[in-house]
Amino acid sequence: MSKSVYVSKAAAVAIVTVAALALVTAIGMVIFHNVRIQECPQLLSPTVLTTTMAPSEPMPEMRLPGNLIPESYKIYLRTHLYSNVTDIENQNFNFTGNSTVKFKCVNVTNTIYIHSSALNVTLIGVADEKGKEMATHQVHLMEDEREFVIIELVDSLRIDGLYYLSTEFHGECFSFTTIGLSVSRYTDERNDERFLASSGMEPTNARKLFPCFDEPAMKAVFNITIIHRKGSIALSNMPQKEQVEMDMDGEDWLITEFYPTKKMSTYILCFVVFNFESKETNYGSYILKTWARPEAIAAGHVDYAHSITGNILDFFEEYSGIKYPLGKLDQVGIQRFGAGGMENWGLIIYSESILTYESEIYTTREKETTAIIIAHELAHQWFGNLVTMRWWNDLWLKEGFATYMSYLAMDRVEPGGNMKDLISIREIQEMLALEARSTEEHLTAKEESIQSSFDINNLYTSTTYGKGAAVLRMIAEFLPEGVFQKGVQSYLKAYQYNSAETQNLWSHLQRAVDNSSLHIPVAEVMDTWTQQSGYPLITINTTSGEVSQEHFCLSTEEKQNLTWQVPITVMKSSSGEIKSDLLTVEGPVSKPVYRCSGNEWILAHVNYAGYYRVNYDPDNWEKLLQQLQTDHRKIPTLSRAQLIDDVFYLEMSKYVNITLALSITKYLLKDTEYIPWETARKHLEYIIFMFDRTEVYGPMKAYIRKLVGPLYDHFENFTRNSSVPHSHTAQLNLINAVKVACAIEHPKCQKMATDLFDRWRKDPTTNPIHPNLRPTVYCSAIASGGELEWDFAWEMLKASPGDQERDRLGKALACTKHVWMLNRYMLYTQDPELSQFVDMFSVISSIAKNVVGQSLAWDFVRSQWSDLSEKKSKMTLLHLIDEISHRFCTEFQLQQIKEIQVTDGEHYYGSKILEKTLERTRSNIKWMEEHKQTVLQWFQMEAS
Question: Do residues 212 and 373 lie in contact, with contact meaning Cβ atoms separated by under 8 Å?
Answer without folding.
Answer: no
